[in-house]
Amino acid sequence: MNGQEEWHNSPIGVFDSGVGGLTVAREIMRQLPNERIVYFGDTARVPYGNKSRETVMKYSRQIVNFLKTQEVKAIVVACNTASAYALDELEQEVDIPIIGVVRPGARAAIEATKNGRIGVIATEATISSGIYNRYIEENDNHVRIMGKACPLFVSLVEEGLWEDPVTDEIARRYLAELIDSDIDTLILGCTHYPLIRSTVGRIMGPKVTLVNPAYETARELKELLISKGLESEHRPGLGTELYRFFVSDAADKFQRFANSILTYGILSAKVIHIDEY
Questions:
Q1: Pick from 29, 61, 73, 242: CA 20 to 30 A from residue 230's CA?
Q2: Whole-Å CA distances, 30 to 24, 96, 196, 218
Q3: Which of these is catalytic: 64, 78, 101, 190?
Q4: Max CA-CA distance within the chain?
Q5: Distance (Å, rounded) from C-alpha 228 to C-alpha 90?
Q6: Coil/strand/helix, residue 148
């Protein structure tokens, strides 16, 4: 095998502040079955949403440094906060392709809307950053964007309450003003939210198109790999470790959550000292 072929078969690096980015990893597994993945969840320092831009930038650099030791050929920032605060600088600093979850979701929403009214639900940090507004307005300044922070959704998802009366009630309260605003497109602007997509969709009704940035990010990653000539053309051979998972703390809890949403069973998640990177 020559060097170019080895580079083709190098893994994709995916990182998040915790477990939410597993929805992105899941979409990559579905849409790019030939690709290997190295996932890092920063479970010791989650959430990023209440951290400063400087802190998120520092954490993101450390994680990128770790992923580069795993010889990844591309990196996906599977975290809306890190995409908002760190992606632009990381793109300048890293010599391999790197993408986030915000731009793919924003582009898909612009393509989907018919009446030019787009809603975004996300964490407080993502909403206050205005990152979705900025990307959407850069591409279409006629669109009106309505953001709504839904912070409790993360805890409900991590407790496994995806289909539960409590989740229904909180979702109805959060989404009421978006229903009244006549949006026809809604971005699930946090990587946890696709796991309660059916609840959100039921409450918003059939006239509202839900945009899942995790799905859109995997699509964009596929296009990027093809354009750079980096896609893996063959399924890795038997005995090859397809997916590796690393965390900064609480490996058992991470493993339980991962096994609840991934069809590929996780045998282990290794704890690393990310501060060393």
A1: 61
A2: 10, 23, 19, 9
A3: 190
A4: 59
A5: 18
A6: strand
- For the domain with range 102-213, which CATH number is right: 3.40.50.1860, 3.30.450.40, 3.40.190.10, 3.20.20.450? 3.40.50.1860
CB atoms within 10 A of CB 214: 27
Instruction: Report the number of secondary-structure helices (H) and strands (E) in the chain.
Output: 13, 10
Burial class (CB in 10 A: 0-12, 13-18, 19+), 171: buried
* 3-class SS of residue 60: helix
Average pLDDT per 10 consecutive residues for the chain, totaling 277 residues: 61 95 95 95 89 93 97 96 92 95 95 96 89 90 93 90 93 95 96 95 96 96 94 72 93 92 83 96
Task: Determine the Cα–Cα distance for residues 187 and 147; give it in Å rounded to an integer.
Answer: 9
Q: In the structure encoding, which two tokens stand for residue 145, read together?
A: 């964007």
User: Residue 17 and residue 49: Cα distance in Å, rounded?
Assistant: 9
Whether residue 150 lies in the annotated active site: no
Distance CA 270, CA 245 (A): 6
Rounded Cα gap, residues 87 and 102, in angstroms: 10
pLDDT digits (tens, 9 = 90+) for 128-158: 889 999 999 998 888 999 999 998 998 899 8
Query: Which residue is listed with tokens 């893994």?
Result: 11
pLDDT in tens, 22-61: 999 999 999 999 999 999 999 999 888 888 889 999 999 9
Which member of 12, 25, 56, 79 is catalytic?
79
Integer Cα distance of 126 and 148 in angstroms: 10
Residue 106, judged by CB atoms within 10 A of its CB (0-12, 13-18, 19+), counts as: buried
Domains 3-100+215-276 and 102-213 equal at CATH topology level: yes
Question: Against a cut of 0.90, is the pTM above it?
Answer: yes
